[in-house]
Write a structure and sequence with these properties.
This protein has 276 residues and is α/β, with parallel strands linked by helices. 32% of the residues lie in helices and 17% in strands. α1 (61-90) packs across α4 (143-156). The model is unreliable at 1-52 (pLDDT under 50). The structure holds S-adenosylmethionine.
Length: 276
């Protein structure tokens, strides 16, 4: 989808939102002001290179465009294969997904964008929050995942869901959403272009909630080997899994992060600034 001329892609500054407190079973609740973690020891293996290759953007615009095309094609291939098993594997994450939707603080009639909506697992909770007068825009590049999302909507009789087959990097929202949800879409949270594009189109003050998997504590190797399997199956990169919300911090400055499941999952929430 083409970007409209003159639309600002700059993420907006955010104001503090001290929303929710610590809940039982959480490992940490903190503002996102810790130093970045670049290397994570996991079962004796370094998962992120201490001396990374130059980013494609530093190699020139053509190389960056080629790298992006190749990355998006890899994501599409992954989900063409995994669409049929996704819901079964994702079932265990349902409590986190519901909690992420609650953190959006949606009211009746709200417009919410589900970024990398997949098969629409978050739709039931979103529908409950916004009611028939609200609107869900589900964005995803995978036709196989969207086909399942469409059939979920048809079965439930939801007439207020718009599904758009697009990369998040190129998505052109026809609306200014009140809230943005990114759940279990590691490839999106690691794409600066995707984040800047979608958050740049949300309304000033919009809620932003991101949930997903991350490397657990070093003393939870069972959890980490499970995450390794899932990450290899459902995302194109292991990069950023120590601190997957890292790229969001610049865009949502008041980002508040909770780690869950012995550090194996996280929920990050904040608000875009009220003014541009
Ligand atoms: C693991 S699924 C999660 C689906 C859903 N959010 C959930 O919570 O179950 C990740 C989804 O993000 C989509 N996705 C990942 N990167 C994307 C990108 N750059 N542009 C569009 N969709 C993307 C994939 O196609 C996939 O459907």
């Amino acid at each position: 989808m083409a970007e409209p001329e003159g639309r600002s892609k700059k993420a907006r500054q955010a104001k503090a939102d001290n929303g929710h407190g610590r809940a039982p079973g959480e490992d940490t609740v903190a503002r996102d002001d810790e130093p970045p973690i670049s290397v994570v020891p996991l079962i004796g293996v370094e998962l992120e290179s201490p001396q990374p290759e130059p980013a494609p953007a530093e190699q020139g615009p053509q190389a960056a465009a080629d790298a992006r095309r190749e990355r998006l094609a890899r994501i599409a291939r992954l989900y063409a294969v995994n669409a049929g098993t996704h819901d079964m594997h994702a079932a265990a994450a349902e409590p986190i997904r519901r909690r992420a939707v609650a953190a959006l603080e949606l009211g009746e009639g709200a417009v919410v964008v589900d970024v990398g909506c997949g098969t629409g697992l978050s739709f039931p909770a979103l529908e409950q929050a916004i009611g028939p007068g609200g609107r869900i825009v589900g964005l995803d590049l995978s036709p196989e995942m969207l086909e399942r999302a469409r059939s979920r909507c048809d079965k439930a009789g939801w007439a207020n869901v718009e599904l758009v087959e697009t990369s998040i990097e190129e998505a052109d929202l026809a609306v200014e959403p009140d809230a943005v949800l990114i759940s279990f879409a590691h490839d999106v949270t690691q794409s600066p272009e995707a984040l800047a594009n979608v958050l740049g189109q949300a309304r000033p003050g919009a809620r932003v909630v991101v949930a997903g998997a991350k490397w657990a504590a070093w003393w939870a190797p069972g959890m980490n080997s499970y995450l390794w399997t899932l990450a290899a199956q459902y995302s194109t990169t292991f990069d950023g899994l120590a601190r997957p919300w890292g790229r969001l911090s610049a865009l949502v400055p008041d980002l508040r992060v909770e780690t869950l499941l012995f550090g194996g999952a996280y929920l990050a929430q904040g608000r875009l600034p009220a003014g541009r």
